[in-house]
Design a protein that fits this description.
about 150 residues; mainly alpha; Arc Repressor Mutant, subunit A; 3-stranded antiparallel sheet; 6 helices
């Protein structure tokens, strides 16, 4: 059986790519007053809409306790607000504030420019296929082990 070669692993390649993306995003966000974690939270909240704290934690891949600390900081800085969910007042929905929405176009432009730079020279169809492949890998890994 051949030895594991990390260069042949999508997981390894994704990890390296994620590090490159996050470093570039950190550089782009520098001076904006928004951290990478806050940007990611806002991206989910603007793109998907208000959601419970636990759901936001799952989208961000962080623990519920870490999400509470992140949301507390963002609420303190005026980026998000907590609202009782209409269907269950015991659940808090996290929503972007008008302040966050006012700067989202600029933040989104930074992210779009970063993607354009990252995707330079790669055909759109190849990007789409790669995204589909990675979605399939995640689906495969989410299932029961055989």
């Amino acid at each position: 059986m051949p030895l594991f070669n990390p260069r042949d692993s999508l997981g390894f390649q994704c990890s390296l790519t994620l590090r490159a993306f996050t470093a570039a995003l950190d550089r782009r966000l520098g001076g904006s007053g928004i951290s990478r974690a806050q940007f990611m939270a806002l991206a989910h909240l603007v793109g998907v809409g208000p959601m419970p704290q636990a759901e936001l934690a799952a989208h961000l891949g962080i623990t519920p306790a870490s999400a509470v600390r992140l949301i507390d900081r963002m609420e303190r800085d005026g980026w998000v607000e907590r609202r009782p969910a209409p269907e269950d007042r015991r659940v808090n929905l996290v929503a972007p504030t008008p302040k966050a929405l006012a700067v989202w176009d600029d933040l989104s432009a930074h992210a779009r420019a970063l993607l354009e730079r990252a995707y330079r020279g790669i055909p759109e169809e190849e990007i789409r296929r790669t995204i589909q492949t990675l979605e399939r890998v995640r689906e495969n890994l989410a299932g029961n082990e055989e």
